[in-house]
Amino acid sequence: MIADTREVLVEVKNLRVEFKGKGKKPFVAVKNVTFDIYKGETFGLVGETGSGKTTIGRAIIRINPVAEGEIRFKGQRISGIIPKELDREVTRKIQMIFQDPMASLNERAKVDYIVSEGLYNTRNYKDEKDRQAKVEKALLEVGLLPEFASRFPHEFSGGQRQRIGIARALIMEPEFIICDEPISSLDVSIRAQVLNLMSSLQKEKSLTYMFISHDLSVVRFIADRIAVIHKGEIVELAETEELFRNPLHPYTRALLSAIPVPDPRVEREKKVLVYDPRVHDYSVHKPKWTEIRPGHFVLGNEAELSQYEKLLAS
User: Residue 225 and residue 295: Cα distance in Å, rounded?
Assistant: First the structure.
């Protein structure tokens, strides 16, 4: 097997995230999740609502505490208690674009303050003139006029509000951006504009993205590799076209079968698969995370892995 020479920017190893209630057994939202994100790529994380996608993103950005495992950024552990200086670097170098552009912007603040919030928190500007110049540059980069800085979020459309959210992330000059369903609440006509904007910014600034979504057709457009998550566990991970060509796990196949086809006749005749977890018999032989071919990982026990290998060979 040829060794991968790409630079790993983010490492997630055996991640477990729990939410504890008063006197109740903790709810396990994410369990035993492992993956790497390479510098300069777009890593897609796909699954249904409640599968743990956003929880993983929030754990990487240090909003959700980690129960077990570790997260590394540029080789340094950033999960758990870390030095103050490293915490400041993580705050600047890792940013997040949130799902709902209305809920994630402070309605009582002007765009100037919203975009500058990270600068204020990290004191990452020389003086007021420098801060204003950075705000103007960030707004221009996302296709907004500098004079918009004096307005409030309610004066903008959904697409414009999401651009403000992107500007807020860009102003920190990050290396890694977690995009949490950034287009799901936008009109279909606006989605392509925001995706194209994100792609062009990635090329210009050598950004690395983790793109969280429930929509495989959107992720296929933007992601280099895709991880499929089900109930807190990653069940399959591969390069985008490899995953679409050779989906192995039954859950991945069910997700792919639900993608709408822009042809009424094909759409009427297609068969949507329904995933039933009972197809797996893990009573004796437990599943393990296996690289079944270079870069293509799948979760399964020995019997399932043998079946998947036959599928790939056929």
Answer: 9
Long-range contacts of the stretch 57-64 (C-beta < 8 A, 24+): 57/96, 57/178, 57/180, 57/210, 57/212, 58/96, 59/15, 59/17, 59/30, 60/10, 60/12, 60/94, 60/178, 60/210, 61/90, 61/94, 61/95, 61/96, 61/178, 62/87, 62/90, 64/17
CA distances from 252 to 28, 139, 273, 274 (A): 22, 38, 10, 11
Residue type, 224: D
pTM assigned to the model: 0.91
Alpha-carbon gap, residue 56 to 192, rounded angstroms: 25
Structural contact between residues 138 and 125, judged by C-beta atoms closer than 8 angstroms:
no
For the stretch 275-314, pLDDT in tens is 999 999 998 899 999 999 999 999 999 999 999 999 998 8
What domains appear along the chain, each with residue ranges and CATH number? Answer: 8-313 (3.40.50.300)
